[in-house]
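Hi R.,

Here's the chain you asked about this morning:
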Amino acid sequence: MVRAALGSWPFWALASAVFAAMTAILAKVGIEGVGSNLATFIRTVVILAFAGLILTLFGEWRAPGEISRRSWIFLVLSGLATGASWLCYFRALKLGDASRVAPIDKLSVVLVAVFAAAFLGERPSAVNWLGVALIAAGAVLVAVRV
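And here is the predicted structure, written out as tokens:
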């Protein structure tokens, strides 16, 4: 049962959500007295070291030439988007409450559904689109102060 869970995408997606939640809280505390760009840099160095450790432990290092040009292009673009996202996220955390910043950041879920339909040809059902709309509404409702 444990082996099946470790091989399933829902397990890893839920783990990602838990760590993302921890990231917001830990970053909000850690950013106090530190500029948001420096905080992003520190976080990035830690992630780089951690990812290198994981690659080493699992023996997954590959020569750059073994990776296709297309993969390189899209992974580099993804890295640039990630960097921009983190810089914006840390700036938002510096300026706002974590409980309000995180829900707006999670509007990325809505945008992923839209982009996946537009660019990847994915076709969510009507029920899926209703869920996307509810996520959008929920994010806004959690973020607003009344």
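One quick note: The mean pLDDT is 93.

Cheers,
M.
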